[in-house]
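Worked example 2:
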Amino acid sequence: MTKPVKIPGRILSVKNNALDLDIEAAFKGFGSRDGSFVLGLSVQLASLGSKPSGLDEHGMAFLASIVAGVSPRDTTEALLATQMAAVHKSIILMTKRLGEAENIAQQDSAERALNKLARTFAMQVEALQRYRGVHQSVTVGQVTVNDGGQAVVGNVEQKANVLASRPDKS
């Protein structure tokens, strides 16, 4: 394991083989000033980012940086961003397993899991956009243009001709 390096702004790190939390960076990165929430989320990210052998500073700091990178504005967004980080980690793991598959059964299993995880991640991104009120809409209509005709595609506003509607002042 590489020697721990204190990186400014890093939310989670390891100090004396224990979790070290930069509380101000966590408040900002997790979109909440609730100490209990920030501590709980930090412990979950540290657990998710670590290995059975112990704390993995780089792994947990990476996951915390994913959550902070989403710039959550509240606890709901922070929780969704945490789930997105967990799904991303699983996608990478399944991609590795797919590449290392030694038989068709392993390949099929990894491929199915990878497909489900990738779809889940896409749905999480959409859920975050909906929660934030980001709407993308496409309106498809049917227009028939006969031979020799012309069509305009886009938003068309028709305004009354102001000059034509004025009484003649002659």
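The first helix runs from residue 23 to 29. The chain has one domain: 12-147.
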